[in-house]
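Quick one: structure tokens for this chain, please?
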Amino acid sequence: MKKYLFPLLATFAIASGPVLAASIPASNKLAFDVIRKGKDIGDYIITFRKSGNNLTVRLNTKVKVKLPLVGVTVYKFEQKSSEQWRSGKLAALSSATNDNGEAHSIKLGASPLLPASLWNMDIVKAHKALNTIDGKKMKISVRKIGNEKVSTGHGKVAATHYRISGDLARDVWYGTDGTLVKVSFAGDDGSKVAYRLR
């Protein structure tokens, strides 16, 4: 059941200032419950801090999968990432990951590419991707599925559904304001994993 969460911080796409700004919620925070087989197994939290033309994005993922009844943890994933932006372009990115006991650490400098931690709607324009855990490049394609209503902690919201395929397989939904409202994918064991906006 490895690799449950890392694709959220695993890809790069071409940056776009206007879309970047639109993807930042007014509250400067996005919080998701990680749901597997109807159970809450973790959190995915994104915070934004703006100062003039500078933007800091911090992402924190914590997931634990336990055996039913006995409560023994059989899978654990933790990741902390920080993105530094200057005038709509990535200036630096750092990420530290514990993937079920396997540690990874990556630091990147300024780049014309953006990290597709999926909060940024520009991922739907990507054709190539870079895994920020192991540094491998991935080929992806994105298809628009259509407009749908998505359940969140604040009720149902209108969103556009996109399907990412190739070396990364994810379904993502963005609200009419451009913010991420849902992520869904299959775990290594075939179970469905979803990020549900609180």
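The mean pLDDT is 85.
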